[in-house]
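Deliverable D5.2: sample structural annotation.
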Amino acid sequence: MATNPFKYISIQPSYAAGFAFCWEVNQSFFDALPWVFSVQQAPAPDGPWTSISPALTNTFSWAENSKRLINKDMVLYFRVKMTTPKGEYFSHVKTPYGDVGRREYLIIREIMRKEVLQARTLSGILGKLWIRSTFGPKCTVCLDPITGDIKDSNCPVCYGTGREPGYHGPYDMWMTFTPADRDESMAPDGSGTRQPYTFSVRAIACPMAKDCDVIIDPCQDKRYYVDGVKAVTEIRRIPIVQTLIVHEAPNSEPIYRLGT
């Protein structure tokens, strides 16, 4: 079996059904695209393995759609299979209760369910999260072949991230925006001050966002850069609810081409 390129795999409760899976690949892994993943399940660490997800191309998160009954006597093992033009790879094997016990797991799922219910019925919108790539093949269009510097921040391939693809997603996420604030700062070109709109966005932490990710409000077709992320609710250090500090991106930003 080939070397394991996975950096980590996490298993979290899915507010809608059973489990939600997230994974990341090491930055030193450079196999050509496409990368096709599938989540696999087995009753024992050595198999037999059965795929429970569809083929996920260049996707790094997946949640079950069907209800899974959490039997206290059930023993399950999961792994992620990765297929590239060069071969197949497998993540390490993990159980769903490796980080929290069954009781805490069910509590986390109930908190997530109530958060999503409130967003759906009261104050939220169904937005989309695009996660900025920190791994994968380097962009062949805008990177300087000698220094590795990004030569075009408006690159049509990587959107100025230096990786191909520049963002992966989108991942649907119920989110609640606070009223807008003005954040006065100097313009990058020194032409004066600017006052971009900033917001605080509350959402469940599945998947967990990070700085420089992008969220989309499809109702208004507005794009926002993530400036900071804080886990506001945790159980045994497992993030359950997150707050994102975001600012509205100008219409000239290349991220407005995401998803088009």
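Annotation notes: The mean pLDDT is 84. The two ends are 38 Å apart (CA to CA).
The annotation will be released with the project's public dataset once the embargo ends.
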